[in-house]
């Protein structure tokens, strides 16, 4: 394999609630590689989202180190993390966070206006199959279409990594497949390292690697020798 895009060394995250310490992560060691689609699989509360937030520069670790291409994220200042998120990372969350008063094109343009080498908004929306919906407002789009606008917004700045937290969690299975097809296309055509958090075990079958979480730790890592396409997944 190539050098890892992400590397973590004994990452631990503890939340203090009064006199009680809650361990969200317990010494996680992980590598994620360039152009790989990785699924982090586990129940709610297992630490997946906490790790994703640390990798994305949205949260810090209590102990341990996290690196992006050799740069130590856990040693960066808030200003450095802001630059890192702007220049290198695309985020897709369960809820779409679109601006309701802006069209699909304008929502994507919010990102392209601050990026050093962006796609045209129309190009990003075409990547997710919405070239005919670019002038529609969020209220005129289905849930799946809104999520694809959110994906287009995330990829429009050409990020090296795409971090997705339950991207199909609010969607039915048919719509979820369409969203997963968009993520799969971005991973294969752009070579974007893609990390997908889910508790839906079926989604693991489209990943290069599956990392299982339980109680803040990695319990198993599986390599898929044969990957399924999103439409082949049995939900």
Please name the CATH topology.
Rossmann fold
Specify the overall morphology.
Answer: globular
The average pLDDT value, as a whole number, equals: 93
Which value, in Å, is the CA radius of gyration? 17 Å
Strand content: 25-35%
Q: How many domains comprise the coordinates?
A: 1
CATH architecture: 3-Layer(aba) Sandwich
**Poorly predicted spans:** none
The SSE order reads EEEHEEHEHHHEHEEE
Q: How much helical structure, as a percent, in the residues?
A: 25-40%
- Distance between the terminal alpha carbons, to the nearest Å? 31 Å
Top-tier CATH class: Alpha Beta
Say which CATH homologous superfamily is assigned: P-loop containing nucleotide triphosphate hydrolases
Q: Would you write up a description of this structure?
A:
The protein is α/β, with parallel strands linked by helices and 235 residues long. It has one domain: P-loop containing nucleotide triphosphate hydrolases (Rossmann fold). The chain contains 6 helices and 10 strands; from the N terminus they run βββαββαβαααβαβββ. The strands form 2 sheets. The protein has a 6-stranded mixed β-sheet, sandwiched between helices. A hairpin with a 2-residue loop joins strand 9 (209-214) and strand 10 (217-223). Helix 3 (104-112) packs across helix 4 (121-127), helix 3 runs parallel beside helix 5 and helix 4 crosses helix 5. The longest helix has 18 residues, at 173-190. It is globular. It starts with a strand and ends in a 12-residue tail after the last strand.
């Amino acid at each position: 394999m190539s050098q890892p895009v992400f590397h973590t060394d004994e990452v631990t995250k503890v939340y203090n609630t009064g006199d009680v310490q809650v361990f969200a992560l317990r010494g996680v060691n992980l590598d994620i590689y360039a152009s790989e689609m990785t699924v982090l699989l586990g129940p709610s509360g297992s630490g997946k989202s906490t790790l994703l937030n640390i990798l994305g520069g949205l949260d810090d670790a209590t102990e341990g180190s996290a690196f992006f291409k050799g740069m130590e994220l856990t040693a960066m200042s808030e200003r450095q993390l802001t630059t890192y998120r702007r220049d290198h990372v695309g985020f897709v969350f369960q809820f779409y966070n679109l601006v309701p008063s802006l069209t699909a094109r304008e929502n994507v343009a919010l990102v392209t206006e601050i990026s050093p080498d962006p796609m045209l908004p129309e190009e990003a929306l075409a990547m997710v199959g919405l070239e005919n919906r670019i002038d529609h407002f969020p209220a005129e789009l289905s849930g799946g279409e809104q999520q694809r606008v959110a994906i287009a917004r995330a990829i429009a700045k050409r990020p090296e990594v795409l971090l997705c937290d339950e991207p199909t969690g609010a969607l039915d299975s048919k719509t979820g497949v369409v969203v997963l097809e968009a993520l799969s296309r971005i991973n294969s055509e752009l070579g974007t390292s893609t990390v997908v958090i889910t508790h839906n075990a079926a989604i693991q079958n489209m990943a290069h690697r599956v990392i299982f979480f339980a109680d803040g730790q990695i319990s198993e890592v599986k390599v898929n020798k044969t990957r399924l396409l999103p439409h082949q997944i049995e939900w």
